[in-house]
Design goal:
binds S-adenosylmethionine; Helicase, Ruva Protein, domain 3
Length: 287
């Protein structure tokens, strides 16, 4: 098994595939695809790597890695699974592959910014696979979560994940353009990983990203289309001392320039990633 994975990793490296959808190196990507082709669990431990592999199984693994290279498909679309905040999510090309640094914050129940035991209502804007909404429901046992997306196709996948995690009673899926279908509902926390890629960057994205829904990435000329709506409308849906937490990735510099007066708190993550700001309702109202 070890040799099979090592060979796969060498092929991925030689082919210069892009790593950015769940793994950040050739070995992990080859291991994930090989284990999937062989129907083996990820957490198999050292013994797994010493296993002998039958010729037919090895051929299946080589073929899957061949597809990864030839079609430049993100690996989670080939395996059908992606991990977020320690939880498995069903994914396919209808949804963005979960990878937000927000996972780290959600696993902590938003501490120290919120008290996880007191959060009752959360809104996940642009839920995609449902990963953020579902991870929030797991981390915040008393919370009910509204998970909004404009894409009906994405919500079908989110529905599979809500069922997979048995959270239908606490996670409500809503088809809506931003806040439009939410009437006057208010939340303790609004969390969003909206589309934020600008037009120039869209053209330069590695081929893997072209398999993801355009609506999940593209956000107009400067990448601000969705963020601008959120900044304008969030305060009407936040409770007193409520939090708005939004990922804008490397559109951070554009956001800072476009809103010089907003007192953004840019969060730090120990597992990497950034470009996530936090604002309170009171700060939004004051500015
Ligand atoms: C960057 S993806 C994030 C998906 C998921 N939350 C995650 O972190 O993996 C952005 C999501 O926002 C949704 N979206 C785009 N425009 C929207 C809009 N106007 N209203 C609601 N959702 C929107 C897309 O369909 C997509 O699922």
């Amino acid at each position: 098994m070890h040799r099979l994975i090592a060979r796969g990793a060498r092929r991925l490296k030689r082919a210069r595939v892009f790593f950015g959808h769940g793994t950040d190196n050739a070995w992990d990507e080859a291991a994930s695809l090989t284990l999937h082709a062989l129907g083996l669990p990820h957490a198999g431990g050292g013994a797994l790597y010493r296993r002998r592999v039958r010729a037919a199984d090895a051929a299946r693994a080589r073929e899957l890695i061949g597809r990864r290279i030839a079609e430049r498909v993100p690996a989670p679309y080939l395996t059908g699974v992606s991990w977020f905040a320690g939880l498995p999510f069903t994914v396919d090309a209808r949804v963005l592959v979960p990878r937000s640094p927000l996972a780290e914050l959600i696993e902590r129940g938003f501490a120290p910014w919120a008290d996880p035991r007191r959060v009752r209502r959360v809104l996940d804007l642009g839920t995609g696979s449902g990963c953020i909404a579902i991870a929030c429901a797991k981390a915040l046992p008393k919370a009910r979560v509204d998970a909004v997306d404009i894409s009906g196709a994405a919500l079908e996948v989110a529905r599979l994940n809500v069922r997979r995690h048995r959270l239908a009673r606490r996670v409500r899926l809503v088809r809506s353009d931003h806040f439009r279908a939410l009437a006057r509902n208010t939340y303790d926390i609004i969390v969003a990983n909206p589309p934020y890629v600008g037009a120039r960057e869209m053209k330069r994205l590695p081929a893997e990203y072209r398999h993801e829904p355009r609506v999940a990435l593209a956000a107009g000329e400067r990448g601000l289309d969705s963020v601008a709506v959120i900044l304008r409308e969030a305060r009407a849906h936040l409770r007193p001392r409520g939090l708005l937490i939004v990922e804008v990735g490397n559109t951070e510099a554009v956001v800072r320039r476009a809103y010089p007066r907003l007192p953004f708190l840019w969060l730090q993550f120990s597992r990497g990633g950034g470009g996530v700001f936090l604002l309170t309702r009171e700060q939004l109202v004051a500015h």
